[in-house]
Write a structure and sequence with these properties.
It contains five helices and no strands. The protein has a domain at 24-127. The protein is mostly helical. It has helices spanning 12-15, 24-37, 39-52, 59-94, 104-118. Helix 2 (24-37) crosses helix 4 and helix 3 crosses helix 4 (59-94).
């Protein structure tokens, strides 16, 4: 990508945010409940990215997603740490690709804790595949105007002289 002097690039301070310090197994263990807990922030971020087609304009929405994830995993640590760690270790050590099927017992324990203490039910199968309408407070972006090129070749006027083709017409059946 070519960058010109007129292009705005965010500073490092604008991009710096506290990251979620978890590996794959804990992220996978908490994914379903996290998706429910931070659904609004995630949908807002994805709507922004799809509508504006420019990641620089969605930095604040991305920061909100990360902040929500930090809040969620801190709440899990405070309320359901033992169950979460047990389920995460099961996912990590039972298979090479974090299969859920070998950890259904520990999953049920975590689901019960999340429902009782955090009031978050595990969404049913296919919940995240369904289309949803997201209400946002951001204004709808202006539709992109078609590109206008001022040096485009003008059309011939209707009264311009038209000579016959030197070697005949490709559309000889219309003559």
């Amino acid at each position: 990508m070519v960058v010109t002097k007129d292009m705005y690039l965010p500073t490092e301070e604008e991009l710096t945010v506290e990251e979620v310090p978890l590996s794959s197994a804990p992220l996978r263990a908490g994914a379903f409940h996290y998706g429910k807990f931070c659904e609004n922030e995630n949908n807002e971020f994805m709507l922004c990215r799809n509508e504006l087609n420019d990641p620089r304009k969605c930095i604040n929405e991305g920061k909100a997603v990360t902040a929500c994830a930090m809040t969620f995993f801190r709440n899990v640590k405070n309320l359901c740490e033992k169950e979460f760690v047990q389920y995460s270790n099961c996912l990590d050590k039972s298979s090479q690709n974090f299969d859920f099927e070998k950890c259904r017992n520990t999953q049920a324990v975590l689901d019960k804790c999340m429902a009782d203490k955090m009031n978050i039910e595990r969404p049913e199968y296919g919940y995240y595949c369904r289309p949803k309408v997201h209400a946002t407070s951001r204004p709808k972006p202006e539709p992109e105007k078609p590109a206008v090129y001022p040096d485009a070749t003008p059309y011939l006027p209707d009264d311009a002289p038209r000579t016959k083709a030197n070697y005949g017409s490709r559309l000889y059946w219309f003559n």
